[in-house]
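The following record pairs a protein chain with its ligand, adenosine monophosphate.
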Amino acid sequence: MAQLSDDCFAFGGPMMSVDEAVSIIAARVTAVQDIETVSLTAADGRILAKEISAPLPLPPFTNSAVDGYAVRSGDLAQLEEQERALPVAGRVQAGAAAQGPVEPGQAVRIFTGAPMPQGADTVFMQEDVRLDQGRVVLPAGLKPGANVRMAGEDIPAGHSALAAGQRLRPQDVALAAAFGLTHVEVRRRIRVAVFSTGDELVSPGASRGAAQLFDSNRFMLMAMLVRLGCEVSDLGILRDDRVSLASALKSVAGTLDLILTTGGVSTGEEDHVKAAVESVGTLVLWRMAIKPGRPVAMGIIGGTPFIGLPGNPVASFVTFVHVVRPTVLALAGATQQHLIPMPVRAAFAYKKKIARREYVRVNLRKGENGVLEAVKFPREGAGLLSSLVDTDGLVELGEQITLVEPGQTVGFLGYASLI
Ligand code: AMP
Ligand code: MG
């Protein structure tokens, strides 16, 4: 387990910006050290433990980029003004060894991916030539070196191709395969326990009392964690009772890498998570300058980090993105992936408080001249699941903004980019 010190989440000020939260996490949370070797088919989404440098150049040999005719560039000087016919002296297809050098004044029939015959360094596309009695008629004006892929032009041998901490994507797995690797070394998946808290909650499938609702946050959070590559333990619903909360938290601390709860962290009389964590570990309430969002409880129980998210689904979603996601990446040994909003045109007006970051739920549509426009979801409540389900993502309004007017450029984050 990654053992964190009790003051890991200490913070002095009254309010914390989103950037401060992320930088505290990135600086103080240490990664799990265990390394596993996984096959390429199981590598997508895993965190690379060690840098991979290219064991061979890509492409490994110089080859033709097209189906056509390979010639020597020495012959091209005479080709500049008028077409020229060359005898076709051989044929080389993909996978075949090139048969000997191309003599000056000769052409070789060649196919995409086939090795360039010795001496040849330029390929005419078959669409650009015509055949005339065993000779190929080449048009004027092709640049020497055209349509050839040089050995190592993609990646030279020895180049640092994939960095440690990279969360492997399908294209990264493809690169490992292109190097001939069958397995890669990755950090082990981090293990996260998830609880919901609240007397009003029941699990889907159980019978629901008149004043109860089905627990939805737990399933959202578990799905987000799985997307981030975590191994998730579903620990159900805890009642609003300090003693039972404390014993449940204590019993899992030390057996996994992160404990995540939702609900019960406001400062109401029935919000017992804070007191429960304080009785078995240390806790700091992070009051983040963010909307939607509520205080997030950050704690350490027996060396294991604890994060208590607010109960309102939208606040829970947004704080997950800014606090849980960076924590999971840091624990997993992944490079922090900063969110990069995409510029779009606001199709709404909005007033906000200075010094607070706000997220507006929006749909994208194509506006005038094909410019992407963000249309605000009509309602704002932090309890509205429909506002997450029926939208494409969030418009991020920075701390300094106080007013958005229609037509203004704003930054959009699609949901897929957030996890
Ligand atoms: P709390 O943070 O416990 O004060 O809860 C704030 C609001 O979020 C209340 O209306 C709760 O009923 C609701 N809520 C809390 N936890 C969940 C959950 N797991 N799923 C859905 N709604 C929840
Ligand atoms: Mg509650």
